[in-house]
Specification:
single chain; about 240 residues; alpha+beta; seven-stranded mixed beta sheet; 12 helices; about 40% helix; about 15% strand
């Protein structure tokens, strides 16, 4: 069974893109950890996010050129400081659009409503292979701002899609959706943010905000709502 794509894109990957999958781990670190530090080093960031020093150096180089990061010292003695979180977040929003970067499949379901779907998901033992996304994630963060009763899920394991379609009684739906399955662009960031547990896992507030902002179905409205209420977003988001 195959669902239909909500939107698709054939945009070419830009070499050296600091908003790519692995690089997003570094941007996420700056917005969550670096924001509270007077200064930090390349190696500190590389160790915390388990990426190469070379990758951190390339990302930092672009951010310095764009005036989003400051540096002092030379070579191995270099130290960095980060004082412009809202500008980095704005820049990230300009470069990332979930509708263009992710494959999304739309479905109707034999189950009635999100509660029944979530219960079926838990019984199927597939809950660890997905994570709540978009409006469903915002609701799990306690910040629902729409009357939508849809279920949006990231596929942490794309190979589980057929099993998931069967467990949730999914049928492709050309317009609108009751269930949306998403293949993530930010796989590394998603794996970092969802953690573990017996219940359906959830995206971080930051990734949820980034995803919602350009989502065509009441996305920006919901993104701004959570940005004004979740502390880790409130301190880095400036509307307008």
């Amino acid at each position: 069974m195959r669902g239909r794509f909500l939107l698709s894109s054939k945009e070419a990957v830009v070499e050296g893109n600091i908003y790519a999958d692995k690089s997003s781990l570094i941007l996420d670190w700056l917005l969550k950890v670096g924001i509270d530090k007077e200064e930090f080093s390349l190696r500190e960031v590389a160790k915390d996010r388990e990426v190469s020093v070379g990758l951190v150096q390339r990302v930092f180089g672009v951010l310095i050129l764009n005036g989003l990061l400051k540096t002092e010292g030379v070579r191995t003695a270099k130290k960095f400081s980060f004082k412009k979180p809202s500008l980095l977040l704005k820049s990230w929003l300009e470069q990332y659009n979930i509708a263009k970067k992710c494959k999304m499949r739309t479905y109707r379901s034999g189950f009635q409503g999100k509660e029944e779907l979530l219960e079926a998901l838990k019984k199927s033992k597939l809950s660890q292979k997905v994570a709540l996304a978009l409006h469903s994630s915002a609701e799990a963060h306690g910040c629902k701002n729409t009357n939508l009763n849809t279920l949006e899920l990231y596929l942490l394991d794309p190979a589980a899609r057929s099993e998931l379609e069967n467990a949730l009684q999914l049928e492709p739906q050309e317009r609108g959706y009751e269930v949306l399955l998403i293949e993530p662009y930010y796989k590394s960031l998603l794996n970092l943010s969802v953690g573990s547990g017996s219940n359906v896992r959830n995206c971080s507030a930051l990734l949820t905000f980034l995803d919602l902002y350009h989502f065509p179905l009441r996305g920006q409205e919901q993104a701004e709502f959570i940005a004004e209420r979740i502390p880790e977003l409130k301190r880095i988001y400036k509307n307008g």
